[in-house]
């Protein structure tokens, strides 16, 4: 590795990528993943995407195509893969449970827009998350933000599901968390096996959700499943 890159990586104030997650759940990132600035990443990706388009035989002087390499690069860095950067990790603040609410809270139909790490095409679907409040409750939007943060990375659905569950367990300070994701994979729909009707369901249950079949059934009933 180039010395200047490793020095910059070492200076990143967030430490090793995903160090707050169990090693088997971390997205595979190199130690120098954050050594380049956002603009340096965009410029580099645009250059490479320009090359891809050239190789496809496209005329990059065409008005409509000219801006595409930079458009794609910005989309990757600022939107599709913004969840790789720990600076975007949501700050999940807890509040004292003054309401004495002890039942399951479900946040359902959270939009999942992710990217298949095998083919770099979209994964689109819904996440449903639930937890049992103890002494603390969380601002509802933080549940959506946690889902979005981990979705905005190259992913497989199994890892995405477990990353969200582990983050919620840690930040909500309870094991009593459930995550269910139903999603369509464009790599299955638009190429290869070309199946437009199948979809993928994954679930992770912690604490009481893992032990209590009736609670899981109640979760699924609240989701209308
Ligand atoms: N487990 C898992 N597999 C996924 C996910 N997204 C895509 N895949 C699969 O990853 C596999 C990659 O397999 P390969 O055989 O290397 O790729 P491929 O030749 O493009 O496979 P086909 O899609 O069958 O044409 C495919 O079966 C994909 O359907 C995911 O989120 N989880
Ligand atoms: Zn794929």
From TrEMBL:
Annotated positions binding Zn(2+): 116, 119, 187
Pathway assigned to this chain's UniProt record: Cofactor biosynthesis; 7,8-dihydroneopterin triphosphate biosynthesis; 7,8-dihydroneopterin triphosphate from GTP: step 1/1
GO molecular function terms listed in the Swiss-Prot or TrEMBL record: GTP binding; GTP cyclohydrolase I activity; zinc ion binding
GTP cyclohydrolase I domain ranges (all copies): 45-223
PROSITE patterns associated with the record: GTP_CYCLOHYDROL_1_1 (PS00859), GTP_CYCLOHYDROL_1_2 (PS00860)
Subunit composition and interactions: Homopolymer.
Name of the protein in its database record: GTP cyclohydrolase 1
Gene that this polypeptide is encoded by: folE
């Amino acid at each position: 590795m180039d010395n200047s890159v490793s020095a910059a990586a070492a200076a990143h104030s967030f430490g090793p990528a995903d160090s707050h997650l169990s090693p088997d759940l971390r997205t595979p990132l190199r130690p120098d993943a954050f050594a380049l600035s956002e603009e340096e990443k965009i410029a580099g990706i645009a250059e490479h995407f320009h090359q891809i388009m050239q190789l496809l035989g496209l005329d990059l002087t065409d008005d409509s195509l000219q801006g595409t390499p930079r458009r794609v690069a910005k989309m990757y860095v600022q939107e599709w893969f913004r969840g790789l950067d720990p600076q975007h990790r949501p700050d999940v603040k807890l509040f004292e449970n003054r309401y004495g609410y002890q039942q399951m809270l479900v946040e359902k139909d959270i939009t999942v827009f992710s990217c298949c790490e095998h083919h770099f095409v979209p994964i689109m679907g819904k996440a449903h998350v639930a937890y049992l409040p103890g002494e603390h409750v969380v601002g509802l939007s933080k549940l959506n933000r946690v889902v979005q943060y981990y979705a905005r990375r190259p992913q497989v659905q199994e890892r995405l599901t477990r990353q969200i569950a582990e983050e919620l367990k840690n930040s909500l300070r309870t094991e009593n968390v459930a995550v269910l994701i139903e999603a369509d994979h464009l790599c299955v729909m638009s190429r290869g096996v070309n199946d437009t009707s199948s979809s993928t369901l994954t679930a992770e249950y912690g604490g009481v959700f893992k032990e209590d079949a009736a609670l899981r059934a109640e979760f699924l009933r609240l989701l209308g499943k």
